[in-house]
Write a structure and sequence with these properties.
The structure holds 2 protein chains of 2 kinds. By secondary structure, chain A is of the alpha/beta class. Helix content of chain A is 33%, strand content 25%. Chain A has one domain: P-loop containing nucleotide triphosphate hydrolases (Rossmann fold). The longest helix of chain A is centred in the C-terminal third of the chain and has 14 residues. Chain B has a domain of 179 residues: MetI-like (MetI-like fold). Chain B is 76% helix and 0% strand. The radius of gyration of chain B is 27 Å and the shape is flat. The N and C termini of chain B lie far apart (78 Å). Classes of the chains: A alpha/beta, B mainly alpha.
Chain lengths: 280, 313
Amino acid sequence: MTSHMPTQHLATTVTPPSDPDAEVGILVTEDLTVHYGSFPAVRDVSMVIKPNQITALIGPSGCGKSTVLRCFNRMNDLIDTARVSGGVAYHGVDLYGPSVDPVQVRRHIGMVFQKPNPFPKSIYANIAFGAKIAGMKDNLDDLVEESLTKAALWEEVKDKLHESANALSGGQQQRLCIARAIATSPDVVLMDEPASALDPIATLRIEELMTELKREYTIVVVTHNMQQAARVSDRTAFFNVAVAEDGHRTGRLVEYGDTPTIFTNPRQKATEDYITGRFG
Amino acid sequence: MATRPLTTGEIIGSKLSGPRVHVADMVLTGLLLISLFSSLLVLITLLADTVHTALPVLADRGWSFVTSPLSADPSKAGVIQGIMGSLSLTGFVVIFGFPLGVTAAIYLEEYARDTRLTRFVTANVRNLAGVPSVVYGILGLAVFVTALGGLTNGRTIISGGLTLTVLVLPIMIITTSEALRAVPSTIREASYGVGATKWETIRHHVLPIALPAILTGTVLTVARAFGESAPLLLAGALVTNFFQPSADAGLGQLIADERYTALPLVVFNWARQPQAEFVQLTAAAIVVLLVLLLTVNATTIVIRDRFEARALR
């Protein structure tokens, strides 16, 4: 594994060389396998996600990229039949270890979903909820302003904080969801096709925002949109799906590397076929 | 004579023109309206006839009809005991049935794992909702009046109220379950995603969103309990022209110690009296029953709208 060190003139990648996570990765999976019932949905995924980078997971439908993403904050726990084996380490701690509480995991590793899903409450309440349940009572006003500012939404909503979040446009709602995710001060933000339900202009704003946010957060994004992966991500993981003889589909990590390499000089034929649009 | 070639506009125009009146649509609309009005008509006729019959009594007696006790003398008979009985019974249903039904539904929908036992229980709750109400009366008689007579004091409002509670529980559970199931999973995910526990998710997001539908279900349920007569007949309610609680009995005693009746039973009793005056009295009692029912429903709806407005904040 070659470590990709940022060159000095690239101000956007500010990983200090002394950070041990930069070497070992903030999230490390080892032979991660997820079964739904008795069938493996994705198998033997080993990858290292580096801090303050955007890592894109791409691949055709059913390749398990969302399933892998949902292992990072134990969202798969909500599905009764899902069974996770292998390891996911977060700062070296096994996320599936016996003493780990998934609720606490999700406070450190936030998530933004495919369809904007604001709570049917006020804009303010949407942001403040995560902090409130985490026991934070003071300075909620500041937190709301700070989170909305970071999500590039403050100017648009500062005069209607107590109006329903449902009145916002789709793009605004998704930025609200990003603000909500960062309000609990996570250090990783997972995004599951965050722009797939948005128009091109709103999509562009989300992408700009992601680039902004990686100074402070580590971002893992699942996307169907290869241009998006090429535009925003530092590293790209290509997943593919294999159909077994009995018809069950199992995803595998095919290739993982720096985004320019994956898009211009992939090692695997399948990666090249996918990114050039020959299938998927 | 050379014919002028058609312009594009003329060609498109001829293609776009149509009958504009679509017979099938109109016939269907008419049929739908007819079925709507015929069901409304039955109701309105019934209501108009009842009010018309009741009018003399309500006009002559006015408020005193509402506040007088039962009597064998048609000129003195009133419905106050029926009203008190019905309201107390409804109170029991709301106080016991609502929390029990809602919590049972929360357990079944949110906490219970999808096992064979859960599915068996759910299927049986649905079956129970379809059991004729008189069967619940037999249950009330056997359990609340007889077996638990020491606690309920036999044929009291407690027994009647508990019988009605058991009667409405399955409906309450079903409507609440459906309301909970209708809450989008995306909202649950959003809540878990910011680090909420299961209970925090239910308490802050699932319940507020489901509450209007739960309360709508409650309105229907309470209305059902309010109109029931068969189970109360068995669970010890009186069908009589005269009964007199001890003059100094407080509310507690009225509920725990004394015999009781309910408005539907007053209607039932009066409807079978031979004297002609009771025909009008019956109609008047029905009017009182309907007005009370509407009041109870309207109150619940106001509460529901309050909750809906508050849930937004």
